[in-house]
Amino acid sequence: QGVVYSHDGSEMPRSDEFVFSLHTADGDVLVDSTRVKVTIQPVNDFPRQVNLSAISIAVGSRLYLTSGRLAFVDDDGAASTTRYEWINTSRTLLPARLEHVLNPGSPLSHFTQED
Predict the structure, then answer these.
(1) How far is CA 87 from CA 77, 97, 102, 109, in A?
(2) What average pLDDT does range 79-107 have in this prediction?
(3) How far apart are CA 111 and CA 23, in angstroms?
(4) Is the pTM value of this prediction over 0.90?
(5) How far is Cα 110 from Cα 98, in angstroms, rounded to an integer?
(6) What is the rounded CA–CA span in Å between residue 115 and residue 106?
(7) In whole angstroms, what is the distance from residue 85 CA to residue 80 CA?
(8) Are 20 and 34 in contact (CB under 8 A)?
(9) CB 112 within 8 A of CB 47
(10) Taking a C-beta distance cutoff of 8 angstroms, is the pair 39, 15 a contact?
(11) How far apart are the first and last CA of the chain?
């Protein structure tokens, strides 16, 4: 048995408070009101997968990796800080590469959700 202060898991605000009064079983007030301040310690949450779809592409063509095809959300950081690393595990089977649309022809080794 006991009483629990339970946080809802949201990232903001970083603090909370509540007020209580203390009474006897007969209703007599022992402490009129006491304020309890709560500091919420941030936790580094793992990014959540929003969209990750299978890809089908014709030989020699290009496919834009939009957020509709590939998206993760990091509640602890901006889209520019979520970094994807290109790991070509089938290099000998599938000669492919990632390129930024503003710099075609130059392979990318990484990109962010903001890209």
Answers:
(1) 23, 10, 21, 8
(2) 76
(3) 60
(4) no
(5) 8
(6) 15
(7) 13
(8) yes
(9) no
(10) yes
(11) 51
Altogether, the residues listed in the chain come to a count of: 115
Q: Which amino acid is at 59?
A: V
How many angstroms separate the CA atoms of 30 and 20, rounded?
11
Give yes or no for a contact between 99 and 109, defined as CB atoms under 8 angstroms apart. no
79: its two tokens: 């889209």
pLDDT on residue 49: 83
CA 69 → CA 48, 64, 81, distances in Å? Answer: 14, 9, 19
The residues, ordered by sequence, that sit 6+ positions from 11 with a Cβ below 8 Å of its Cβ are: 42, 75, 76
Cis previous bond, 13, omega within 30: yes
What is the band of 34 on the pLDDT scale with cuts at 50, 70, 90?
very high
Beta strands at 98-100 and 83-85: parallel, antiparallel or unpaired: unpaired
Look up residue 35 and give its amino acid: R
